[in-house]
């Protein structure tokens, strides 16, 4: 049976003109990288070839979330140290991931680096149907250029008012640059479909009212407990639970991409996107850093979808003035937050590292931020993956990991059993076999002192029922089979005996008939002789 991709698209054209999809968000924590990895897996399950170019400089690294440990990235390719085959890693679904694309967001490349990347782009061009570009959740000039160069972009939002406000800031910056691509809003972590559509409606209404810009609805992914489980197991949610609510949403998104974007034969390919990205007109650093401060006031979304106007902050001409304005609350919080992001990005581009104070600030942020449980779980799993990537060893050894797992499910037998089943599923996925010998486990259970005769009888009955359900016949041991075969042989012998008796009776009847006919013939001969008829013996007749 043909896949939806082959039904809707010409494969030869797909290979020549892959579709480039950019994924951005205004705020970290909305699950962008997780959605990118899962959506790519859903498209791969539909028969498409997908490559993720991971340019996210934040903690939510796509490859790490899927349990991959890339040793090299785009930086080594640009320097000519490694080949494309050495840098690309693939999931078992066939999704390719090219990590380390943060180099494209940093300092300008040298001519030899650009030449190497030109070659890499040409090599990638015909290998995949779709290229997903996972961008960091920061509002910088480079991020805007990545979105601006793409014909198709996806903006991830959630019902969180802060996420909606930050996404609106990104949209406003794109609108100021006259972005003419197709921007689709995807609502992630939605409670249900009505909540997702209401979130989109609020966002689209504010966009049309304040910016005179319409945004398309790209779909939604429902909040699902299987998503954080998949993150913890470093696998895709469609692989963990293909029929879960989130998986069904992801497959729906994949089908819409195939139908509406995959059928666009005039869409620019990866080489065209790369050329547009390189030729994008840069904005002067001062203007880029103060772009949002100098812009129009932004709306603020509250939990009911209402919008409040924001004041335009006073300008600052020095760090001291900026600090004084912060202390006096002269600056609006959201605008200041975006200025801080632009400032840190400029600091990183200038000095190649983050400020030393970031460590203490990071700890304070973790303590002060009121994180929901799924976001904390995703953050912890991502930190674990980053540690493993940098040090080539897990953060926790096996005994520590087992102890943590046991402590988490203590006095909760159902969760304990669920954890065991998930570990077994991960083992089967990795090694294509079950980690336990069912026969040995059963024997060990039977020989334990807690196993009673009644449990043994119940187990036997369940095994007999399972045998009949599997092989469509009652279970019989070798003695029962031998007895049945003996009975069948005796029955066959009885039938043969009956047949022989019938044949013997027929023979006896024929013998009796023959004897009767002989007697009658002798009687007739004797009667003829008694009537003195000449009947000479053969010898006298010869004479």
UniProtKB/TrEMBL annotation:
Signal sequence bounds: none
Keyword Cytoplasm included in the entry's annotation: no
Keywords, alphabetical: ATP-binding, Nucleotide-binding
UniProt keyword Nucleotide-binding present: yes
Domain CobQ/CobB/MinD/ParA nucleotide binding: 22-236
Cited Pfam families: CbiA (PF01656)
Protein name: AAA family ATPase
Source organism per UniProt: Methylomonas aurea
């Amino acid at each position: 049976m043909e896949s939806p991709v082959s039904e809707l698209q010409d494969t030869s054209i797909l290979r020549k003109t892959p579709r480039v999809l950019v994924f951005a968000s205004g705020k970290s924590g909305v699950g962008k990288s997780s959605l990118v990895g899962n959506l790519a897996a859903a498209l791969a399950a539909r028969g498409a070839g997908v490559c993720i170019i991971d340019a996210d400089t934040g903690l939510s690294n796509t490859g790490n979330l899927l349990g991959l440990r890339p040793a090299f990235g785009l930086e080594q390719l640009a320097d000519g140290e490694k080949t494309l085959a050495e840098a690309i890693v693939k999931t078992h679904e066939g999704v390719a991931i090219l990590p380390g694309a943060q180099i494209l967001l940093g300092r300008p490349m040298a001519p030899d680096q650009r030449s190497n990347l030109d070659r890499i782009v040409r090599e990638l061009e015909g290998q995949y149907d779709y290229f997903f570009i996972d961008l960091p959740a920061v509002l910088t000039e480079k991020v805007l250029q990545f979105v601006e160069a793409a014909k198709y972009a996806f903006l991830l939002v959630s019902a969180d008012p802060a996420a909606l406000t930050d996404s609106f800031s990104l949209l406003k910056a794109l609108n100021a640059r006259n972005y003419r691509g197709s921007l689709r809003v995807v609502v992630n972590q939605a409670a249900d479909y009505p909540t997702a559509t209401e979130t989109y409606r609020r966002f689209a209404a504010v966009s049309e009212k304040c910016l005179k810009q319409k945004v398309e609805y790209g779909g939604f992914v429902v909040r699902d407990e299987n998503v954080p489980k998949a993150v913890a197991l470093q696998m895709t949610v469609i692989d963990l639970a293909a029929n879960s609510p989130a998986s069904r949403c992801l497959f729906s998104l994949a089908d819409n991409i195939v139908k509406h974007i995959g059928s666009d034969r005039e869409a620019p390919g990866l080489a065209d996107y790369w050329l547009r990205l390189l030729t994008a007109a840069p904005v002067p650093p001062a203007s880029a850093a103060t772009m949002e401060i100098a812009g129009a006031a932004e709306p603020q979304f509250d939990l009911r979808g209402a919008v409040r106007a924001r004041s335009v902050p006073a300008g600052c001409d020095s760090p001291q003035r900026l600090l004084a304005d912060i202390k006096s609350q002269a600056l609006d919080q959201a605008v200041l937050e975006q200025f801080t992001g632009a400032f840190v990005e400029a600091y990183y581009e200038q000095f190649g590292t983050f400020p030393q104070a970031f460590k203490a600030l990071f700890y304070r942020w973790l303590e002060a931020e009121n994180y929901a449980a799924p976001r904390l779980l995703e953050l912890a799993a991502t930190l674990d993956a980053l540690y493993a990537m940098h040090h080539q060893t897990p953060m926790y050894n096996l005994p520590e990991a087992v102890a943590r797992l046991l402590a988490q499910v203590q006095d909760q037998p159902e969760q304990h059993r669920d954890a065991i089943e998930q570990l077994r599923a991960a083992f089967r996925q990795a090694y294509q076999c079950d980690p336990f010998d069912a026969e040995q486990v059963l024997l060990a259970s039977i020989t334990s002192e807690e196993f009673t005769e009644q449990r043994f009888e119940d187990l036997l009955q369940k095994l007999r029922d399972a045998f009949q359900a599997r092989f469509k016949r009652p279970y019989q041991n070798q003695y029962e089979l031998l007895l049945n075969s003996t009975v069948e042989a005796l029955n066959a012998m009885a039938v043969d005996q009956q047949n022989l008796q019938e044949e013997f009776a027929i023979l006896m009847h024929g013998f009796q008939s023959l004897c009767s006919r002989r007697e009658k013939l002798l009687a007739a001969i004797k009667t003829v002789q008694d009537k003195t008829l000449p009947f000479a013996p053969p010898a006298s007749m010869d004479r």
